Amino acid sequence: MDIGALVHAFFDNAGPGSVLFILIVGGACIFYYFLTRWIVATEKRDEPTTPEEQPESMDA
Amino acid sequence: MEPKNQHTQTILAPIRKVSKGDYLLWGALTALLLSGLVAWIWQYIEGLGITGMNRPVYWGVYITNFVFFIGLAHSGTFISAILRIAGQSWRAPLTRAAEAITLFSLPFGAGSIIIDMGRPERLLNLVFYGRYQSPILWDVTAVSLYLLSSVVFFYLSLLPDIAMCRDRLTNVPHWQHRMYEILALGWNHDSEQYHRLEKVLDGMAVFMTMLVVTVHTVVSWLFGMTVQPGWHTALIGPFFLLGAILSGTAAVVIVLALLRKAYRLEKVLHNGLFNSLRKLLITFVLGWLYMMIAEYLTIGYSNMTEEMVVLTDKFSGTYATMFWSMTVFVFVIPLLIFIFKGKNSVGWMVFASVLINIGMWMERYIVIIPTEISPRMLHVMGQGSYLPALPEILITIACFAGLILLYAVFTRFFPIIPIWETAEELPGHAHSTKTSPAPSSASSD
Fold first, then answer.
1. What gap in Å lies between CA B136 and CA A50, rounded to an integer?
2. Contact call for residues B350 and B253 (beta carbons, < 8 A)
3. Any stretches that span the bilayer, and where are they (chain A) (predicted)?
């Protein structure tokens, strides 16, 4: 396989460049989405369980 | 359990009520923004012929704004990411104010490119036919990734404070409270959440630092990869980068001083912070002076014909007034102020920082226009000329108004000082190592 020709084709042809752009930005979007989910996803130990324990702010 | 911060009430105070003054300010800024929008529509209908741009001056004030706003955007990442990695805990109260500059100036930087295009819909051609030979595609990739990462970095560090707004601000309008509920993503101040958040922010700080370097270097390569006089130099990357960090840090000083005054945050944004920024600014001003001397001495000594046309234009020709004004604004006056006056005076610091930013905008202008007027091959003919026209002036004013508007609105709905990052104690932490409380002399100017 001619790696040099492949690299050359990547830079010289319209299309592959934008695919890489979409992969980079799209990949980052997906990565950040799961990262955010991982940060906030913990057991909600401190959350009140009964209606009486709801914080005052919820009524605002 | 919420983080314990003695300044929580002070920091949340600006969020409780939107004053008439705020509405007036927002209204005035919106009017300016709309005038820019009208000018852009006018330009879209009539074409770029109504601007001051012509052959061979294809880039004018719009690209100046692009470089300037992207430069401003480096403030947040510098303060939040680079100083975070360096373990500079004093930066904690400044982080959000600086990151907000990044977040709100990037759209206007990136948007300036679209405004500069007579046919903005052709931006889609980058997606359909983009090729990696072109620095434009490098630039779009880098700026898009930077914008996305900045939003995430900003939002993640805001999460605990949004949750605090949700829990504490009980008398705000229902829609505002609902907004906090949605944006808080169910954050419940769990110690594990804080551990994960800090771990992610530390990791992202490294990545953001690399992005900062990449983005402004790639922006500079839009110029450097051409063979035009004044641009085609290997130094242009670090030259642009350091200039961006300089103007960004100066912008942080201005914003902090305004916030401190408007929202009475003297106890949180104490004089010590301004003094730390002063030292950084001295370093950046001197670093940038070194870059300029290295650049212009190398060009001048070579005495190459095309290069000398542009250089002479800057030193003693059409752009000499602007060039030497820029030198005085960026180097001479700020250095004198920082060394002799700025140590205990926020007012002088702000004055110097405003001068730096005016000077940096002028610098971006004279990097672009003289080369465009005398490009390689056409320098002998000396045909080029450029003066910004009305649409360009209106759109430029609108960009600055839009940045201020976004910032002003944001500070009325979200805490501009990070409560959890400046807390004395975090859930699951015996004692926070984040930051030191304000010194006793904090409130004095």
1. 57
2. yes
3. 14-35
Q: What number of other Cβ atoms are within 10 A of residue B182's Cβ?
A: 11
Long-range contacts formed by B288-297: CB under 8 A, 24+ apart: B288/B239, B288/B242, B288/B243, B288/B246, B288/B330, B288/B331, B289/B331, B291/B235, B291/B238, B291/B239, B291/B242, B291/B243, B292/B239, B294/B235, B295/B233, B295/B235, B295/B239
Contact across the interface for B131 and A38, Cβ inside 8 Å: no
Tell if the CB–CB gap between B132 and A10 is shorter than 8 Å. Answer: yes
Sort out which chain B residues have CB atoms less than 8 A from A35's CB and list them. 152, 200
The residue type at B397: I
Q: Which residues of B touch A30 (CB under 8 A)?
A: none
Give chain B's domains with CATH numbers.
Answer: 11-413 (1.20.1630.10)
Token readout for B25 is: 């300010």
Q: Is the ipTM of this complex over 0.90?
A: no
Residue of B nearest to A25 (CA): B145
First-to-last C-alpha distance (Å) of chain B: 35
CA B204 vs. chain centroid, Å, equals: 19
The token pair that represents A36 in the structure block: 């955010």
In sequence order, the β-bridge partners of residue B4 are: B425
Under an 8 A CB cutoff, do B168 and A14 touch?
no
Judged by CB atoms closer than 8 Å, whether chains meet at A35 and B185 is answered as no
Binding-site residues on chain A for chain B (CB distance < 8 A): 10-18, 20-22, 24-25, 28-29, 32, 35-36, 38-40, 42-47, 55-57, 59-60
State how far the Cα of B86 lies from the Cα of B72, in Å rounded to an integer: 21
Test B152 with A32 for CB contact under 8 angstroms: yes
> Which pair of tokens denotes residue B420?
């959890």
Q: Using an 8 Å Cβ cutoff, are B106 and B231 in contact?
A: no
